Structures are given as structure tokens and as C-alpha cells.
């Protein structure tokens, strides 16, 4: 099948998963993006991928077929019926690598969305992209907000698989998108050290106390309301709701020794009444707040910011998810 265009621009948001209590289920899209442009070669003999990277990862990411966006794009092109061809990929990266802001989910969603845009006219089929991306990522909590935007709650229905072009594909991923009050913002403190998701996962116990599970269930139920305009209309302080809703006993304490500076910053921010938690697997620290808290948060974390080991991003919630333009 021939592509419908030769040039596609993709814009994918960063994400924060878990949000404290919503371990492995809740994700939030942030107004902070990687942008990529794909240009297909017109030479039928050219099968090479030329990769140009600026910004985050420009000195460390591979510039060959092992690049996650490139390998995903290749697989997705084949899945959508496109013949292999050469292309140029220009990546302008803002999302930090291995920090808990969804860089791998962004890469997978970008590759699939670009391939879809080359293979189809019209709007993206976000459900198709979500299913494929979650299958490649292995879990849906980061890819869901990257695809749909806003806040998502995702889960997996077991035993739902299909054979697609010889591959066993898990088609049981599901996600619901929830409204987020326009006043809710996220401040993300980004450290100068990394933590692999594998290490963070290995730090978790295989069994947790029953009372801790109940604790998180109650908080994640509140989280949906704390982020939702209908709940915020009630006569309760929205920041108090966010503070309580982001409490957790399932994962953060077990991972704290792997990122002690992050744990200390979370304790400091929460001691001052702010809804701080580990972003994804860490080591970024995210703070949710309703209204502008830029000055106050900068002041509380002044020592960390002055050390040169941390920076802070004060962000809105992204409500659009992945965007593509055929040029």
C-alpha cells in the first residue's frame, strides 16, 4: 500500500503515572511535548532511517534502527500495510529520559501515530493506537494519557488476545478519560539523576498488607473526584482533596531508598500541605495543585533548585493527547 502523504508531524505529551494512590492505573497528560517530523524517501532503493535528535537525549539516544521510535514506526508501518522505505526522522525532545515522565510511552505512541497517519486519511483512530501502544509497552497507564490527553484510568481484561500478522497481540487494554478542572496544574521537579523502571519495579514486594490496599482504594476513589470539576464545585478546598487523594501506601515507600533525594523532597512538599508524589517510577516529583502555586513551590524547594541538581516545570494539563499533521 502506498502512503497517503510523504511528511507527517507528530506531537506527543509527557505523562505522569500513578498520581500517588492510583498505582499502575491512573495517568495524567502534561502540557510538555516531544515533537517529531517524519519524511519518507521517494527513492525506492533507499531503505535507511536517518535520525536527527535535538534536546533531551541528543547525546545518548541511538541513531539507528534500535531507537524506540524508529523500531516502533517500522513495526507499525508493517501492521498498517505500508511497504518498508527509507525516511528521515527529526526529533525535538523536551521530555527527560528515564525520569518518570513517560518518555518510553511517548516514543511508542509517536511511532504508531506517525505510521497510522501515513497509512490512513482523516483523524487518528485513538482506540487502535492505544491498544497497539499498550501491547508494545506492556501496560496502559502511561500510553493512555499520551493518546487521549487529560486524566485516564486504565486496566487490562485478561485472556483477550488476537493473532495479527503472526503476532500474538493483547487486545484487552481498556481506558476511561476523566475531566480535569481547568484550574488544576502540575509542577514537576526534575532531578539530574535517572532511575530505570526495571529497578523501581524490582523494589516492590510481592505481597502488601490488606489495610494498605484498602488505604489506596479509598484515596484513588477520591482522586477522580478531586480532579473533576463537579467535585470541585462542592464546598471543600480542592487542594485539601488533592492532598488526601494522592496519599499512598502501595509503592512509594518501597522505592524511596532508590531515590532518596526525591523522597526527601516529597516529604518537604507534603509537610507544607502540597499534593506531592513520585511521578511514574521516578525519580521526578510531581505536585498537583488547583490554582497558581509557582512562587510558593519555588520557595519551599529553594535549596534543591539552588543546588543545581533539580529544575522545576510548572505545567498545565494537556487535554488533547497525541496530535498529527500531514504536511
UniProtKB/TrEMBL annotation:
Name where it mostly resides: cytoplasm
Any one GO molecular-function label of the UniProt entry = ATP binding
Keyword line: Amino-acid biosynthesis, ATP-binding, Cytoplasm, Kinase, Nucleotide-binding, Threonine biosynthesis, Transferase
May I have one GO cellular component term?
cytoplasm
Which EC number applies? 2.7.1.39
Q: What's a BP term from Gene Ontology annotated to this protein?
A: threonine biosynthetic process
The subcellular location is: Cytoplasm
GHMP kinase N-terminal domain segment(s): 68-150
Name its pathway. Answer: Amino-acid biosynthesis; L-threonine biosynthesis; L-threonine from L-aspartate: step 4/5
Where does the GHMP kinase C-terminal domain start and stop, copy by copy? 248-297
Any one Pfam family here would be GHMP_kinases_C
Catalytic activity, as annotated: L-homoserine + ATP = O-phospho-L-homoserine + ADP + H(+)
For this protein, the record's HAMAP family field holds:
Homoser_kinase
Alphabetical list of PANTHER family matching this protein? HOMOSERINE KINASE, HOMOSERINE/4-DIPHOSPHOCYTIDYL-2-C-METHYL-D-ERYTHRITOL KINASE
Protein family per UniProt: Belongs to the GHMP kinase family. Homoserine kinase subfamily.
Relate the protein's function as given in its record: Catalyzes the ATP-dependent phosphorylation of L-homoserine to L-homoserine phosphate.
Q: What is this protein called?
A: Homoserine kinase
Please tell me the species this chain comes from.
Bifidobacterium canis
